[in-house]
Amino acid sequence: MQNNLSSPQALKLLFISTPVGGLGTGLGGGVELSLYNIAKEMLRRGHTVQIVAPSGSLWDEFPIIEIPGNLQIIAQSQERKDPISMPVNSVLGNMWEYARQVQSEYDVIVNFAYDWLPFYLTPFFQTAIAHLVSMGSLSDALDQIIYQVSQAFPHTISFYTPSQGVTFPNLVPPLRYLSSGIDLSQYEFCGKPKNQLAWLGRISPEKALEDAVEVAVKTNIPLKIMGKIQDEEYWQQICSDYPNAPIEYLGFLSTEKMQSVVRECKAVLMTPRWVEAFGNVAIEALACGVPVISYSRGGPSEIIQDGITGFVVEPDSVTGLTDAVSKLDTINRQDCRQQAENDFSLEALGLRFEDWFKAILGRDDSVSRL
Ligand code: HBI
């Protein structure tokens, strides 16, 4: 089958970040890591990338156009039938006003926000907008506008995983799943872990940290907790509910520091109460050779090779988690690292994004790969 091997000419890409926090604050969760890695890989592949994000972004690896304004409230704190809300002087509105002004300088605008406005604005822009949907279905209003855009602008909607995509009603296949990828050179393999477990992520109710804390209590294995405290009250509740749990909160760490802790753990626990769209935490753990034990919900259940690179357990079952912890010696940690190299390299991610942009721009000249 003849394949078009010529790489696409360099694209001019405008990335519009999530409006829930500045890049580097941790408030943007997995999207921060995704945006960072995709930008780095697109630059490596010869494209140009300009990032637009709320003021207070902390990255210095990329020039970021920082936009002032009030942050958007996080979608997971709202009810499904809530009307769309926008704060006064909305940073979301201000970022997209900036995008409107400069759009003609770019080939594709990539939207990383899980918010109604960018989807609604799609037909008003002359430049193509590519939407990376970062969570499962949470809101009827967002479901509807995503459906409308998917109908009017084929190829412009993408998800991380099938189990995330199926949560959105009425979407017409083929849906595009980009999975994720990380810079594997930033994660160092460790074959001899300490007697400790790790839990990483935004500390927020939908991530159910309390279940991991219960595992630490039941197994008496110390639990290292890393990530941004997004919901202070929720964190304080956990601390008061489990005063003697063998847990240690290490803060929201850089990738380098985070992986230096994770790599020495027997496993990473993932306890999502919701359909986790992907779970970058899972591939970061695998890249360090660390098995992942997760509830069977969303992305992690598609990432983990059950019994080989970790365990997928019954949702909300703390017993299932502790049973899996007792079986960790059956996992070969090299298999975990190998899976990260096989499935989650930045190169593979970059190719999927290039294919996506070519499809949107109608330059899908590469004959369909077998
Ligand atoms: N909520 N309204 C809104 N917009 C976002 O972009 C958003 C969010 N909640 C969480 C979030 N993004 C990120 O943590 C994603 O990584 C999930």
TrEMBL record:
Q: Where is the Glycosyl transferase family domain?
A: 193-341
User: What keywords would UniProt list here?
Assistant: Transferase
- Which GO molecular function terms does the record list? glycosyltransferase activity
Q: What is this protein called?
A: UDP-glucose--tetrahydrobiopterin glucosyltransferase
Q: Which organism is it from?
A: Brunnivagina elsteri CCALA 953
